[in-house]
Amino acid sequence: MLAGAWPPPASGHIQPAAGVLLVSAAGFRLPHRSSLRRCLAYPEAIAAFDEDLQDALQRCGLARLAQQLDREAEWGSRLSPCERQRLAFARLISRWPAGVHWLLLDGADGLLDGTSALELHEQLCARLPPETGVVVVSRHREVVQRPGWRSFRVDPARRALREEERQQQPQQGPAGQPGGEVLELPCIGDAPVGLPGVDGAVLDGGASAGGGGPRWGDSQRRLEQSADGEKSG
User: Locations of Low complexity compositional bias (predicted)?
Assistant: First the structure.
């Protein structure tokens, strides 16, 4: 919703914001039969200098492709899913997309092992432009426990929990049982209130200064109920 991929709920607490880029587990969309150089620039017309592209590929574990910048191929099918995830990080490292101030990485490292995922995040964070924020949803403990990041659990009701609440929550249970799946949401920065388009009270567990603010989960449930109503109609 933050990136505009889903329509926001009617509550008004989550609204799409400009300058937000979403990278999912599939990585970036790759153009039909094109050079690797073009893939590293897409959707922009011009990529970075060759040495920057080659350096980014090497840093992201794709050194074998560093000398194939002008090779034309169906890279979307030629690369493995893991390599496509690495290529997405190389794209961001070689040249930051114009006009992007917030980056949402939703499972963008999910096919990699934890150590490799952490290395990619370290490489990316070391090259972020000033005044840029990153929100990461990852299954890797190595990533979510990275020093310097604030980590928030999100329960099955999609309510972000305060950091001090984390120790009081039960550990992950068997799949399919209440409270089983818990997402980790690391945020770069001192506070989550700067997240684009999201009411700080909602991210903070739903309790505003007055103590009775709306919850993220409530908005999600209203959205789901609306969708169910449309299906039944």
Answer: 191-206
Contacts of 118 (CB under 8 A, 6+ apart): 140, 142, 143, 146
Is the separation of the CB atoms in 144 and 151 below 8 Å?
Answer: yes
Facing residues of 185 across strands?
Answer: 152
Domain assignment of residue 210, yes or no: yes
Q: Is residue 3 part of a domain?
A: no
Pairwise CA distance, residues 146 & 165, whole Å = 19
**Domain total for the chain?**
1
Burial class from Cβ neighbours inside 10 Å (0-12, 13-18, 19+) for residue 230 reads exposed
76 by Cβ neighbours in 10 Å (0-12 / 13-18 / 19+) ranks as middle
pLDDT 10s per residue in the chain (233 long)?
444 444 555 555 444 556 888 898 988 889 889 999 999 988 787 777 899 999 999 999 999 999 999 999 999 999 999 999 999 999 999 988 888 888 999 999 999 999 999 999 999 999 988 888 888 888 898 988 887 777 766 666 656 555 544 444 444 443 433 333 334 444 443 333 334 444 333 333 333 333 333 333 333 333 344 444 544 55
Would you say 191 and 154 are in contact if contact means Cβ atoms under 8 Å apart? Answer: no
Tell me whether residue 131 is in a domain: yes
- Which residues form the domain of 61? 20-232
Asked, for residue 118, whether it belongs to a domain, the answer is yes
| CA 115 from centre of chain | 18
For residue 175, what are the contacts with CB-CB under 8 A and spacing of at least 6?
Answer: 181
Domain of 148, CATH number, reads: 3.40.50
